[in-house]
Amino acid sequence: MFKKFLYACYLISLGLSVYANDTSGTILPAGGVVFEKQDGIKMQVEALYIRPKQIEVNYLFENTTDNDITTQIFFPLPDMPAVEEYLGDEAHDFKFKLWVNGKAKQYQTHWTVKQNDKDITNDVSILFYRPEEVVTDQQLAKRIQTLPEETRQNLQDKKVIEWDWTLDRDKGEIQNWKMPDNADWKKQISYSWQQTFPAHKTVIIRHTYQPTLIYTNVGTPFSKCINRQSKQYQEFVYVSENEAEYPRGYLNARDYLEYILTTANNWQGPIENFNLLVESPLKSVGCFDGEAFYGGKYYAVNRQNYTPEWDMSVDFIIKGYDIPSDYAPKSNPVLYRIDGPANLRDKPNGKIVGQLTDKSQVWAWPDDKKGNWYPVLQNDLQGYTHKQNLIKVF
Questions:
Q1: Are 167 and 258 in the same domain?
Q2: Which of 144, 318, 333, 337 has the fewest CB atoms within 10 Å, counting from its CB?
Q3: Looking at the structure, do residues 54 and 141 belong to the same domain, yes or no?
Q4: Do 17 and 50 share a domain, yes or no?
Q5: Beta strand pairing status for 54-63 and 202-209?
Q6: 359, 337 contact by CB (below 8 A)
């Protein structure tokens, strides 16, 4: 797997998933969330691993004060559609899981629905059976129909719903209940838990979740910084004729997600060590640090004393129409700290191709090691280093 790396129609909707860094905040009585800057807690390390079927984030926090700090931690997901024409309640199931210092931890789920900029959560909560659910137009109409007439009238008076002509996929144009014309219902979800940070101690927080896989048949990237007409992009997705398994000889952009990095600025100071790894079945493009990136099977970033000024996006580039449903990495990467400086070689005991600085961090693949030599990746550096040079971070 790593050797190659070293040498190297239902499909109608925009593939959009959005995720964010942990931040701290408070719950308002009405159910909204306010995010606050948390002085005294420093993010020493963030390790963000993104692949099509799962996102994993590990954080190492340090309480820099003389007192224990207890606060409510939030992982917010920005707005997503509450009603979608075809995808319905299977569209968003994040399977969020949380661990603190290696032990599973319970969390709460908070959600709101807004119609344009108006909070209508109290009015429409009865129409959603679970927080992460997204309903189709037809499901919405059926659920409204089951409400008591007085409740429907109240929602109609508030201009939350209306009775009007709609397009049914099976029956054609019919009269039915629906959202008002020009209304857009957006759902916002946050996961939260109370966390205590002992004075002058560190806490490891890990969470995983599944990105929403909604496909598009457009085949071109949605990352705003990518110029799909540019020579660089055209050459990146070109497939020579003897390799082509896809009409026109080009690869497809199929799954798109965004990740919000800027919420990390709610903690004390910059992130001491920020590490990003994007793994794609074939290639990826996207936006990081406000600029376009073009990655092969892996795209890696290591930044020290990093203050995010932009959020990021990723488009996975593949052959054909779908990322295989059984896609999984052959081995999982692990974050290590360099006990060095350390040489980087093109193969075990091979030619030196670079040097890894002391205390910098690298992604390594222990399952692919050759004897005492580990394949590692750090920014544009890739090769092998000896295990004696590596100290595990997570």
A1: no
A2: 337
A3: no
A4: yes
A5: antiparallel
A6: yes
> 352 to each of 100, 183, 369, how far by Cα in Å?
39, 61, 18
Distance CA 214, CA 131 (A): 19
Whichever domain contains 45, its CATH number is: 2.60.40.3680
- Locate tokens 């929602």: which residue? 155
Tokens of 79: 């707005």
Q: Which domain holds residue 145?
A: 121-186
Strand locations in 268-311 (E): 271-279, 283-288, 291-295, 298-306
Q: For residue 326, tell me if it sits in a domain.
A: no
Task: Say whether the peptide bond before residue 341 is cis (omega within 30 degrees of 0).
Answer: yes
**Same domain flag for 130 and 278:** no
| Bridge pairing between strands 97-100 and 202-209 | antiparallel
The reply to whether 351 and 363 lie within a common domain is yes
> Based on the domain organization, do 173 and 288 belong to the same domain?
no
Of 71-85, 135-149, 234-248, 373-387, the poorest mean pLDDT is in: 234-248
- Furthest-apart CA atoms within the chain: distance in Å: 78
Going by pLDDT thresholds of 50, 70 and 90, the confidence category of residue 325 is: low
Cα 389 to Cα 46, 331, 371, 381, 392, distances in angstroms: 21, 21, 14, 15, 10
Residues 216-221 have a mean pLDDT of 71
Kindly report which listed range (241-245, 350-354, 375-379) carries the lowest average pLDDT score: 241-245
Closest among 184, 77, 35 to 120, alpha carbons compared: 184
Residue 129 belongs to a domain: yes
Does residue 354 share a domain with residue 285?
Answer: no
Query: pLDDT for 96-151, tens place per residue?
Result: 999 999 999 999 999 999 999 899 999 999 999 988 888 888 889 999 999 999 99
Is this structure's pTM higher than 0.90? no
Indicate if the alpha-carbon torsion angle 224, 228, 231, 236 is positive or negative: positive
Residues 78 and 195 grouped into a single domain: yes
